Each structure stands twice: as C-alpha cells, then as structure tokens.
Amino acid sequence: MTHEPSSLAAAHEGRAAAAWDLVRALSDHAATLTAAAPQAFALNDAGALIPVAPGDATAVAEWQQGGGWRLTAGVDPALASLVDLYLPICSATPTRPITLGHLGQSLDGFIATHSGDSQFVTGEENLRHMHRLRALCDAVIVGAGTVAADDPRLTTRHVPGPNPLRVVIDPMARLAGDYHVFQDGEAPTLYVYVRRYVTGHAPAPGRAEVLAVGDGPNGVDLAALVTHLRDRGCARIFVEGGGVTVSAFLAAGLLDRVQVAVAPLFIGGGRPAFRLPAADLLRECARPAYRVYRMGGDMLFDCDLRASADGADDGAIARVL
Ligand SMILES: NC(=O)c1ccc[n+]([C@@H]2O[C@H](COP(=O)([O-])OP(=O)(O)OC[C@H]3O[C@@H](n4cnc5c(N)ncnc54)[C@H](OP(=O)(O)O)[C@@H]3O)[C@@H](O)[C@H]2O)c1
User: Fold this and answer.
1) Which atom of ligand 1 is least distant from the CA of 246?
2) Domain of residue 49, residue span
3) What is the count of structural domains for the chain?
C-alpha cells in the first residue's frame, strides 16, 4: 500500500500529539501521587489517566514511590520513545525536584557565531523539544547574553502547554528594559542581578519582578537562586542557555540532567557551548549515564548527572516522533 506524503505527515503529527497528551497527563498527575505502593494507570477513551491494578495489561505507565514514572507494556510502541524522553521531568515533584540544562551545539561545539547568530543551530524538532521542556517546567532560565542576542519570548507557542516563569540572569544589570520578556506580559518574568555589582537605584526592567542575589563562585550565587525558585514552588527548572549560564549551573553541581543536541554543521568559531574547568586526565572526566534520541538531523544526548555511566543505559538511539 502506498501513502500520500500528506497522509503520512498527518499520521506523524497525530502520533506526536497523542504522545504529548500522554506526557502532559503524566506530568500533571505526578504531584498527586503519594502512596508508597506502585500505582498503575491506563488511558480512558477521553485520553485521561485512570487507575488500574498493577500488572493490568492495559496499563500505560506505573508510578513508583522514589522512582517516579516508568512506561509499561500497554503503551503504544509508536509513542513510547517520545514519552520516555520526558519521564524524568514528569517524575519530578516538590519532594524530588529537578534542574535540567539544554544546549543545541554544532559538531565543533558552538552554540552561535561570534556575532551571536544562533537561529537556528539545531532543527525544527529540537526547537519543538525546547518548547516542550518549557511547558513541563515551572521556570525557564536564560542569561543576559541570550536576551541581548535573541530577544526571546520564552513561551510555549509551538506546543500546547502552560508558559513557565521566565528568569533572566543579568549579573551586572546591563540589559535595557525593552526586551519581550520584560514587556510582553505573556508570562511572569523574574529579573536577577548581583547586589554587589550595582550601586545606586535597583534596576527595574519593564514589568519584571526583581531579585538581587549575592555573588558565588561563578559570578552569581546560583544556589541561592535555585533555593528561591524552589521556595516559590518551582520543582522543575529548565536552564535554556546560553553557554555561560548552562556551564555555570553545571560547574556549580546544580544540574540533575543536561541535554546536548548536536547538529550536523561546523561553525568554525563563535560562542562555545560548555566552558568548564579543564581536567588533566581523561580518567578524571565526568562520564554521566546517557540516552540518545534522534530529532530530525540532530542527535540529542540526554545525560543523567546523578548516575554514573557504569552499567547504566546502553545508549541505544531512539527516534523521537
Ligand atoms: N544553541 C543554544 O542552545 C542556545 C541557547 C541559548 C542561547 N544561545 C545563544 O547563545 C548566545 C549567548 O550565550 P552566552 O554563553 O554568550 O551568554 P548567556 O549564558 O546567555 O549569558 C551570560 C552572560 O552574557 C553576558 N552578556 C553578553 N552580552 C551581553 C549584553 N549585550 N548585555 C548584557 N549581558 C551580556 C553577561 O555577562 P556579564 O554581564 O558578566 O558580561 C551574562 O552574564 C547568544 O548568541 C544566543 O543566541 C544558544
């Protein structure tokens, strides 16, 4: 049987939408699950999760206290890899929070050219992935360099789902107040600067709420910022970029996972993805457990920084819808 390209594309979109609906249902359900025993869930005709007995053949996912969500045999195999990618985030709750970083880089390790041109290093599927991460997380963090270069909106306009709290780290309070995140009102924005670097009036960019923090080992007391965000209910934090900001969170040991999407292009020079303290010996280097997902022409490494690579995932490549 042959298929028209348009019917294949429609089927693909339908599967991606169904998988995303399941991801959101699992995400929303996590905070309500408190029982110590494993709990299993199936999908009803309306696509809502309904409890079933553990081991039930129709169960699509099981919740394990302390371990979070795991997919079960009843899930449609065509949806499984997309759902699986997001389970660590869907499993995070106020008592088991998560902070995740993501960068899209070239084969030679850059996220933008010297001039700051970065739209886009990775492809459309990775862009949609970033919007999904925003939708699943309570807060999205970017550095001032990203706001200055891209004037991003940091919303979820490419996928159904809520906008997160937008957090901009501008240590020396250099940004003007006319960027989207400070003016558009599409989601709340928290503007963070370092108290010591600013004398005189506190900055007040547009409609943003302002938070002054101390300076830490990487210029900003990021641990204090994470504590502040947790205290206001942000169990899931997404550090979206740029390289300076994701590297600072990584170096400070504040990331639970880091995702690196590698795109098949060479930039030759520009803004580096990771800037980390150099190791002398390869045996001293961090080798996290990882999973690999294909997104169009890009390869996404999903690294679990709380697990060692020894005996962990086999790194098999799964195609994300
Ligand atoms: N591919 C991706 O995944 C991805 C994601 C996000 C962003 N990007 C790109 O990455 C680049 C930004 O990344 P980055 O590592 O350079 O910085 P960043 O992590 O976004 O921001 C960190 C630092 O940028 C500095 N900064 C640079 N230019 C600035 C300006 N004009 N105004 C205010 N502060 C400025 C600030 O440091 P000081 O005040 O200490 O100087 C700030 O603390 C942009 O080109 C953006 O398009 C790529």
Assistant:
1) 19
2) 5-84
3) 2
Same structural domain, 127 and 75: no
Q: How far is the CA of 142 from the centre of ligand 1 (A)?
A: 8
- Residue nearest (by alpha carbon) to ligand 1 atom 46: 146
User: Does residue 150 sit in helix, strand or coil?
Assistant: helix
- Same domain? 61 vs 204: no
Nearest CA residue ID for atom 28, ligand 1: 145
Helices and strands per DSSP (H, E), number in the chain: 7, 16
Same domain, 151 and 60: no
- Domain boundary among the residues 84, 114, 130 is at 84
Question: Rounded CA gap, 88 and 289, in Å?
Answer: 13
Residue 311 has pLDDT above 60, yes or no: no
Rounded distance from Cα 242 to ligand 1 centre (Å): 5
Amino acid 175: pLDDT: 97
User: Whats the size of the chain, residue-wise?
Assistant: 321
Considering the domain architecture, whether residues 229 and 306 belong to the same structural domain is answered as yes
pLDDT at 315: 57
* CA of 116, closest atom in ligand 1: 45
pTM, full prediction: 0.94
- If you measure from the C-alpha of residue 100 to the centroid of ligand 1, how many angstroms do you get, rounded to a whole number? 18
Minimum-distance ligand 1 atom for the alpha carbon of 122: 1
- Report the CATH number at residue 240: 3.40.430.10
